[in-house]
């Protein structure tokens, strides 16, 4: 009996995190998918892990009501909008590396918002709220 692959493990835990599944629920899910054989994801077989991943992806898809590609595109578009607004306000400029720009955006998020996470971890809803906040800053910046 061959256990799950490293790729499966990464995907499984990414899905569990994205769905906010706590450790107790995760153990129960594994117990159910292994017909009571184990509660540890380390002991999932390749087939069991595939079934669990497919099931979690369906739940995630239903909860987000968008195909993964469209979600990624929407996130990318929202992030791009943040970069443009930060540039328009003078917080970042074209001479900076992407890493420098993201560091500045992360500091801005930490000091001026209540999101509690870094730029690349913001949800689409948080990105939208952040953009609205920056648009207000931009209006004030342009008035002065």
Outline the structure in words.
The protein has 144 residues and is an all-alpha fold. It folds into 2 domains: 6-64, no CATH class; 68-143, no CATH class. The chain is 69% helix and 0% strand. The chain has 6 helices and no strands. Helix 1 packs parallel to helix 3 and helix 4 packs parallel to helix 6 (124-143). It is elongated. The model has no long low-confidence stretch (mean pLDDT 86).
Essential attributes:
single chain, elongated, 0% strand, 2 domains, mainly alpha, 144 residues
Termini distance?
69 Å
Average per-residue pLDDT, rounded, comes to: 86
Number of structural domains: 2
Q: Which parts are unreliable, with pLDDT below 50 for 5 consecutive residues or more?
A: none
Largest sheet: number of strands, sense, barrel closure: none
Q: Measured on Cα atoms, how large is the radius of gyration?
A: 20 Å
- If helices are DSSP runs of H or I spanning 4 or more residues, what is the number of helices? 6
In a few lines, what is going on in this structure?
The chain has 144 residues and is mostly helical. Helix content is 69%, strand content 0%.
Can you lay out the helices and strands and say which pair or pack?
Layout: H1 6-18, H2 23-33, H3 46-64, H4 68-88, H5 98-112, H6 124-143
């Amino acid at each position: 009996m061959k256990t799950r692959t490293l790729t499966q493990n990464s995907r499984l835990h990414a899905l569990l995190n994205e769905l906010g599944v706590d450790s107790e629920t995760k153990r129960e899910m594994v117990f159910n998918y292994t017909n009571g054989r184990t509660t540890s994801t380390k002991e999932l077989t390749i087939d069991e892990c595939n079934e669990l991943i497919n099931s979690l992806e369906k739940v995630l898809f239903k909860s987000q009501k968008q195909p993964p590609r469209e979600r990624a595109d929407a996130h990318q578009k929202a992030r791009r909008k943040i970069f443009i607004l930060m540039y328009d306000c003078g917080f970042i400029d074209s001479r900076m590396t992407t890493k420098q720009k993201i560091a500045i955006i992360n500091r801005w998020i930490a000091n001026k918002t209540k999101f509690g996470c870094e730029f690349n971890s913001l949800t689409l809803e948080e990105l939208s709220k952040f953009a609205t906040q920056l648009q207000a800053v931009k209006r004030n910046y342009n008035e002065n």
